[in-house]
Amino acid sequence: MIPVIPNVLTVAGSDSGGGAGIQADLKTMLALGVHGMSVITAVTAQNSLGVQGAWELPVEAVRAQYRAVVDDIGVQAVKTGMLSSAPLVEAVAELLADTDAPVVVDPVGVSKHGDPLLAAEALDSVRTRLLPAATVATPNLDEVAQLTGVQVEDEDGMRRAAGAVLEFGPRWALIKGGHFPGDAVDLLTDGAEEYWLRAPRLDNRHTHGTGCTLASAIASGLAKGLAVPEAVRAAKEYVTGAIAAGFALGAGIGPVDHGWRFR
C-alpha cells in the first residue's frame, strides 16, 4: 500500500554546490510531492566550475544508512547515483536485492564538467551487479559508451545502445540523447515497447544536475504508483521546465531550477 506521501530513497554522492547529487535529488523529490531520504556514498568538493575533490564513504557507513532508513521508515522507490568504486557498487546492489521497491539506476560515470566519478574497475560491477537490479536504467550517451562500447551518433544508434544496456538485465532502459543537435530526444524501451520522448532544444547552458534530477523524478513517479512510461514522461516534462528555468551560479555552469513550478 502506497502511503499518502510516498517515501523515496536516493543513494548517491553529495554535491557541495547544490546542483547535482543528493542535493538535486532531495529538491526534486520535494517539488514532486514525495518524502526524500538519503544514503550518502561520497562527499565532493564541487562548484559551478567542476569537481575539486571527492572522498568515498566506507561501505559500512553506506550500509548502515540504508538499513536505518529501509528497516524503520520503508521505501516506495530507490534511486542510485554516484557509486564510485566496485565495493560500493556491490554493497548497494546487495542491499537493493533485499528491497521490495522499484529501482532507478543512474550509472553516473562523469560529471557535467567531464570529471570522472566512477573508477574504471567498477564498470564490471555496474554491468553485472547493479544494472540487473534496475527497474529503469538511465545512462546518457557517454555512459552508454563506457558500459557497452556503443558509440551513438543517431537514433538507430540509440536503439542499438538500448539493446546493449538491456542485455545487462534492467527491465527498462532510458537512453538519454540530450547531447544530439536539435531536439532533446530520449528513447525508453523494455525491448518490446518503445517510446520516443522529445523536447525542444533550450538555449540555456545552465544544465548542471539534469541526470540526477531526471532519475529522481522518475523514482518519484514510480513511488506514486505510475507505470514506467508514465513516470518517465512526467519526469521528462519536469526536467524540461527545470532546464528552461536554469540559472547562473558562480563563474561556470549553473544548475537547473528544481523549484521552477513554484516561481
Summed up, what is this model?
This protein has helices at residues 21-31, 59-72, 86-97, 123-130, 141-148, 155-166, 210-223, 228-244; strands at residues 7-15, 35-47, 50-56, 77-80, 103-105, 136-137, 172-177, 184-189, 194-199.
Explain the layout of strands and helices.
Layout: E1 7-15, H1 21-31, E2 35-47, E3 50-56, H2 59-72, E4 77-80, H3 86-97, E5 103-105, H4 123-130, E6 136-137, H5 141-148, H6 155-166, E7 172-177, E8 184-189, E9 194-199, H7 210-223, H8 228-244
Parallel strand pairs: 1-2, 1-4, 4-5, 5-6, 6-7
Antiparallel strand pairs: 2-3, 7-8, 8-9
Explain what the structure shows.
This protein is an alpha/beta fold. It has a single domain, classed as Ribokinase (UDP-N-acetylmuramoyl-L-alanine:D-glutamate ligase, 3-Layer(aba) Sandwich). The chain has helices at residues 21-31, 59-72, 86-97, 123-130, 141-148, 155-166, 210-223, 228-244; strands at 7-15, 35-47, 50-56, 77-80, 103-105, 136-137, 172-177, 184-189, 194-199. A 9-stranded mixed sheet has the order 3-2-1-4-5-6-7-8-9, with helices on both faces. Helix 1 (21-31) packs across helix 7 and helix 2 runs parallel beside helix 3. The longest helix has 17 residues, at 228-244. The protein is globular, with a radius of gyration of 17 Å. The protein starts with 6 loop residues before the first strand and ends in a 19-residue tail after the last helix. The model has no long low-confidence stretch (mean pLDDT 93).
